[in-house]
Amino acid sequence: MEVTAGSNAVQDLLPLVFAAPNEALTKAEAVLRRRPTPLHASVAHQVIGIWQRDFGDMRLALRHLRRARNWAARAGSADREADVLATLGVALVHSGRTRQGLDALGRGVRRGAGHTRARVLFRRAYAWWVLGHHKEALEDVRRAVPVLRQAGDVIWTARALTLRATVHLALGAVERAEADFASAEDLWAVTDQEHDKADAVESRGLAAFRSGDVPAALRLLDEAEERYAKLGTPTFMLSIRRCEVLMAAGLAAEALAETDTAIAELDSIGGQSTRKAELLLAAARAARQADDPATAMARAGLAVRLFAGQRRTWWEAHARLVLIGARHAAGKGSGRLVADAAAVAERLVELGAPAAPEAYLLAGRIALDLGRTADAEPYLAVAARSRHNGPPLARMTGWAAQALRARAAGSTRGVLEACRRGLDVLDDHRMTLGASELRARATARGAELAALAQRAALRSGGPRRLLVWSERWRATVLSAPPTRPPADPELLSHMTAYREIAARAEETRMEGRPMPALEREQRRLERAIRSRTLHMRGEAHGDDARFDVDRLLERLGDRVRLVELAVVDGRVQALLCGQGRVRRFEAGWLAAAETEAEHVQAGLRRLAHPGAQARLPVVEAAGRRLEELLLGPAAAHLGEGPVVIVPPGRLHRVPWALLPSLRERVVSVSPSASSWLRARETRPPRGGRKVLVRGPGLATGGAEVTRLAARHGGATVLEHGDASVPRVLAELDGAGLAHIAAHGTFRTDGPMFSSLRMADGPLIVHDFERLGRSPYRIILSCCDTARFATVGADELLGLVTALLPLGTAGVVACSAPVNDAAVVPLMLALHEGLAAGLPLPEALRDARAALPADPLHRATGWSFTAFGAA
After folding, report:
1. Exposure of 422 by Cβ count < 10 A (0-12 exposed, 13-18 middle, 19+ buried)?
2. Which of 118, 405, 549, 861 could bridge across to 144 with cysteines, CB 3.0–4.6 Å?
3. Residue 833: which pLDDT band, with cuts at 50, 70 and 90?
4. Measured between alpha carbons, how far is 141 from 118 in angstroms, rounded to an integer?
5. Dist. CA 564–CA 548, nearest whole Å
6. How far apart are CA 363 and CA 321, in angstroms?
7. By C-alpha distance, which of 284, 219, 257, 248 is closest to 441?
8. Strand 789-791 relative to strand 755-758: parallel, antiparallel, unpaired?
9. Distance separating alpha carbons of residues 658 and 481, to the nearest angstrom
């Protein structure tokens, strides 16, 4: 058949649909309006069908592809008909009509020859991959690649290599996948196939994740999303992959939100049934990790039904695994559930799926919960084999299985060894993460191992051992400074723009005017800042020195007591350290203490306003109940000297000075005993430079700053326009003492955007992390600066915890709203103590005592806490 110049132009629409999809669609529709030849009509309908298949309505896609097949038959071109049959077959598979799709692909293979047949084989391999038939997919690619290479077909060779790499990833062969991705990327570099290039970036992101590099995976997936956005391409597959990465980073709630949004969007356009099933599975996994078993069961159950209807056994087995795990989490354990988990595990082994150890662990865990130790052992033994190989999270699965085996066998030593090895793996994984938020959230993966170890330590009867294990997983993120944000011009530009927008939004809010556009832009900039921060790869190494109880006791001496509150099975265990020994006292239930702490916070908020003095006895009574719940019998053994409290993350807002046994005492708080030791051993910078900062909008105008400036001769005073974020950060870096009087805002929805209000906008946690060394001592005389978000296993995110790893040895901050006027005399008295050479905790104790005895001033004093040891 003669091919004209016009024919070439029409044929060029097929590669164009992946380079410039919308342009290809417009041109194909124009071809159909010109009464084309059968050959041209076939190409045009095929292009429209591909566009609808990938970006639109599957029903329209199938309609156009069937017309393309019919026109190809009328054109009398076997190769044209084979090519359309391949496209139609893939579309049928994506619509859930698996048998019809494979039949069309088989006819395409038989109808085509040479180069065309190789292209059809590639598309059948793609369909096999979608269906989870990896062996068949690799076989078809093996047959296609040499022919495509010989024909000099760069585009289709690159596609085939990308597909082969993706199949290798599914089977856990990361090195093979990376080699194929690299070869494909070299080929894409000489083409204009922008859609395929974006897909290659997305695939590299998946490979980075499989090799354990979460920051690189997030960066590459974000880059792929930007590329797709320029092409107007839906990103359903990207959402599935990003969900997996977000879960590994401890961001399960975000993963669930993204997948649910993608499902709604896919439904609205009548998109691919196969993608919907995969999105449902991703959503189920995210819900399970987010401790929402009901949602996980609903999503996984629907995914199982869709996969079964699509004859996708690989995917169905994975969905059944999530469904069984969700049922177990919901308390639906039974012998039948053990059998179901074991059957899924065996099926995953047959399929060569890396998830098989996870299924065996689940079967063993359910059996143990039912008291069927003998049944659990073989399942756990198989799962435990994964502890020495594979990516970090897979090895942790193996160590969890080994720990459960040891517990079932009654071996405390075995439990502790398995937990130690598993948490070591997690530590290595965490330190690849540069962002402190990701490091904190990633610790959630170790919560079970840490809890198992603490139970074993408690049963073995040694308080020292329980202290060591309480420290092993407590505030681990603070053990090393976070990776400093890079000198990234785009990140710095985003942060500057964010301050400007946030300042305008605050001004508009104060005027009572609506500001939807400003709020949208602020949210967009927050997402951009956070995204670029999460891309940072870890550089700092963890603290290799293990926690040393003897070193702690030596530093405490005979006068100082440190009380670490460990929580085992919901019960508070007070570990009292001092006088060369560690003693354990059992206190109350954590849940009851949390409830009481909320009552105290509510009372302090009321007492911050004049006329609420009637609430004082209620708050004091709540303080007595808190002491019983948190310290129990340990309260009678605190001695006469200073006390350091190391609470669990969920109790860091407790106003410890309110507790009767601590009210007249020097008391400080630390996220961990290790953190207190580091603070104690931190040396102040030379020169002892002092910085006083006064932000805008304070009820008193920041009155204490003016008076402190007169007292601290030579101090740097930043106020009015000088109190800008860049200037404040420059002066804070390496200062000996900093005092910041500014409005504080704690963001429960984004703790890293908790802020202090400066003249040009908010000074956020991300800003503090840019400091080379934070001030040796810092006083934050504003509301909510000592509030934290508890994430991961027992980690804290907030202003104070951003400072502690960066060189700050002591912080005074506030955990509740306070009366600005009442703060002024407290701060002045606090600085008097510092001028006399007292450390922050002692100066704060004396400052409270110097206040008037009325309820307003007493509540103000209780609301401030000293952190650290300086």
Report:
1. buried
2. 118
3. very high
4. 9
5. 14
6. 10
7. 248
8. unpaired
9. 32
Q: 497: which 2 tokens?
A: 């723009």
* Integer Cα distance of 478 and 675 in angstroms: 7
CB 679 within 8 A of CB 818: no
The band of 541, judged by pLDDT with boundaries at 50, 70 and 90, is: low
SS3 content of the chain, % helix, strand, coil (to 5): 65, 10, 25
SS3 409: coil
Give the pLDDT confidence of 557-578 residue by residue, as tens digits. Answer: 999 999 999 999 999 999 999 9
C-alpha–C-alpha distance, residues 115 and 605, integer Å: 76
pTM of the model: 0.86
Distance of alpha carbon 865 from the chain centroid: 29
- In the structure encoding, which two tokens stand for residue 452, read together? 């198992």
- Please state, rounded to an integer, the average pLDDT across all residues of the chain: 90
- DSSP H/E element including 361: helix 356-369
**Contact call for residues 221 and 260 (beta carbons, < 8 A):** no
- Compute how many other C-beta atoms are within 10 angstroms of the C-beta atom of residue 63: 15
Pairing of strands 737-741, 643-646: unpaired
Residue of 814, 844, 853, 466 whose CA lies nearest to 643: 844
- Looking at the chain, the whole-number percentage of residues with pLDDT higher than 90 is 65
Tokens 């955990």 locate to: 815
Question: Comparing C-alpha atoms, which of 27, 21, 74, 72 is closest to residue 50?
Answer: 21
Question: Smallest Cα–Cα separation from 96: which of 267, 309, 313, 316?
Answer: 309
257, two tokens: 């939100």
The two three-digit tokens of residue 227, written as one number: 């590329």
Compute the residue count for the chain: 870
The residues, any chain, with a CB within 8 Å of residue 560's CB and separated by 6 or more, are 578, 641, 642, 643, 644
- What kind and span of H or E run contains 669? strand 667-669
Per residue in 112-149, pLDDT tens? Answer: 999 999 999 999 999 999 999 999 999 999 999 999 99
Question: 263-310, pLDDT tens digit by residue?
Answer: 999 999 888 999 999 999 999 999 999 999 999 999 999 999 999 999
How many angstroms separate the Cα of 838 from the Cα of each of 412, 679, 781, 829?
45, 16, 18, 12
d(CA 402, CA 411): 11
Residue 442's pLDDT is 81
- Is the Cα torsion angle 85, 88, 89, 90 positive or negative in sign? positive
pLDDT tens figures, 745-759: 888 888 888 899 999
Instruction: Report the Cα–Cα distance between both ends of the chain, in Å, rounded.
Output: 88
CA dist list (Å): 397 to 87, 238, 323, 340, 620? 40, 26, 18, 19, 47
What pLDDT, on a 0 to 100 scale, did the predictor assign at position 222? 94
For 632, left (φ over 0), alpha (ψ -120 to 50), or beta? Answer: left
Q: CA angle 822-827-830, nearest 5°?
A: 135
